[in-house]
Amino acid sequence: MADLSLLQDSQEDTDGLLDFVSQDEMLTPLGRLDKYISSENVFNRQMVARSLLDTLRAVSEDERECVSVLERIDRLADDSEPTVRAELMEQIPHIAIFCQENRPSIPLAFSKYLLPIVVRYLADQNNLVRKTSQAALLVLLEQELIERGDVEKLVCPVLVELTAPDSSDEVKTEAMAIICKMAPMVGKDVTERLFLPRFCEMCCDCRMFHVRKVCAANFGDICSVVGGEATEELLLPRFLQLCSDNVWGVRKACAECFMTVSSASSPEVRRTKLSSLFISLISDPSRWVRQAAFQSLGQFISTFASPSSNAGQYFRDEAEWSGAQTHSSSADGSCEAEEGGGEQTAEVLSAASQEIPEQELFNSFHFWRTPIPEIDLELELQEDRRSAAPPLARKQLQELIENLEPHIDDPDVKAQVDVLTAALRATALDSGLEDAFLEPRAARSNPFSSQQPSEHLSAHTRRRDSSLHVTRDDDDSDVSDSNLSAEEERKYKQQDVVPQALLEQYLSMTDPSRAQTVDMEIARHCAFSLPGVALTLGRQNWHCLRDTYETLASDMQWKVRRTLAFSIHELALILGDQLTAAHLVPIFNSFLKDLDEVRIGVLKHLYDFLKLLHQDTRRKYLYQLQEFLVTDNSRNWRFRSELAEQLVLLLELYSAQDVHDYLRPLALCLCTDRVSSVRWTSYRLVSEIIRKLSSCSSLLVSFLGELVEKFCHSSKWSSRQAFAFVCQLSIEEECLSLDQFSEHLLPPLLQLASDPVPNVRVLLAKTLRQTLLEREYFLNSSNCQQAALEHTLVALQTDVDKDVKYFASVHPGSTRLNEDAMSTTSSTY
Hints:
This protein has 46 helices and no strands. It is mainly alpha-helical. Helix 10 packs antiparallel against helix 11 and helix 30 packs parallel to helix 32. 34% of the residues are buried. GO terms for molecular function: protein phosphatase regulator activity.
């Protein structure tokens, strides 16, 4: 009995609930709204706020009912519960969009009913309601749902009033943040008239550093809106104060927005005032400020570039520049010979000028070669008097350098050669000789070669070597030359594009001490901004950045090298082909042998980099492309997929013969990859190779025969299916003529009609019906393959598999290549 009574009670409750639901269903939308909007249950009123948009849609056809709903919204806005007001404010943007879409039936609904609620909530006592209203206001401005006049008359005055001195600190900070975010949306005129005076006042708020921090964080945005004149007259003095604020968080915010402030300033102000100001931030006592400053340093330097300049207009033509440097170096060498050689040197020059070709006439090797025996005798006498290094030590140094020269590409060996060359140069200066090793090492295959210096060497090397001449009668020649070399080294880093102090600070970012005192990631920030700095300085000042770039390229952190690998193609575009071949190609080669995390950066832009190289240099990489097939992790299939995509682009850079000899094996290897996505990308690569080889009939016939043998006649059904897909793609992309297709690919393709695997026959049916029969060429009765094509299609229409029968009989308009071919083989992973 007890169980029966419980059952009866439960049934009664259920009936009551059903009656309640049925009563709500009988109410009109406005009736339900009135019923719950006055409920004492908070959750019911929250539910009303959530359902306002649905209620409006339900009554959208009746203008009077829409106005009634909007009036209820105004009533709900006065709810005493903050969660209800916050819920209402979240729905305001959606309701505003609805009102905008139905503007003819409910004109001025937003500005009359909704916007006053948003403005009122900006000063609400509850933090959640204020935050929600601020977010809603920004959304409404972004969607351009507020009229410009309403913004000036209703919104802006309220925000300015909220930043008044008598406002609470929290409200003042929030209002200033909204003002800064609104400035780009409302434009220059409104910002200058309504916001700018209060913004300048808040920058000097002595009581609350939070307000100053908000101003500092958004200073660049305000400068960008008001323009250069207002920035320099009104904002820049405030910015100077913020950069010297006693709170490190404010100074850090200034460092982070420095680039945008600089972009809004004139070049004179940028160079005279902002540069020194930024230097003070770099040397700030707070590590966090220094860290932010160094992260923004490269961006700040990039603002010194001329807005009308590009990578090709910073300097003269690179060949003319190299020629001018070579001529300058040669002239210095000839003057040196005239001063040190006397009459004997003049005779040597006259004799040499008759025997030496014109292009070799200014090579310093021909000037000192003949007097060597006499100089050696004199050297022995001087060594006795001056206690110089014995000749044996000199010969040992020469032998060591000769042995290391073939391995100069290794960075460690290069460093050793530099040290040994410096030691040898020092002994030469002590003895009064112009040593042969003063010539650039890369210009000769051995220390005594008579070839000209390589045109790819940096101008600094030629300028430095040509300037190191010594008079034998000067006892203090070693000291004076040492001072000259140090001075030349300082001049070597000089340029006039950006303030030298900024460049020196940027170059110091690779200093290991910076990682300990500033930021462990400082080298990566340096690498990230280096292309922008290089573009600003121009290729004529590349020598200023070369050492830094090489240091970053050999950094122990793979993230630093990865950053450079992803941007090396951009740097190559800035430097041009000659500097790229001389300085970037060795680093590019080292990246090719690096970790996969670094190699992927090179691989993603392989085409962009190789197309900038000379054809002979570019061909050398054909032998290295196969190295990309090997990865540290065999499961990294995206690496191989990216390789296939890059190979498609690389086809245009090489001849048909090179494509056949080097890229064809890679494509066929990728077509047999274990991962389906890699294979399908490779099939497209094969079709593009067919297009490339179509200009050479012999190579094309050979490649098509190989495709038939390896794919159409393969024992793997996925390979046979791939052959059908390649045929379909070749026709749709017009990779070869229809005559060539009919002769070499169509007969083996039709043989797949008897394939035992249905998936192969399905793709064959799609290829015949959707691709071949759309071409009038295959419908022509004069075509010798028409009968075989029709016979195959009839056989597929009577196939035992229903999918094959369907695609052979019907031509669905929506089933195209990308949808069907891929979906059919989705199980071939």
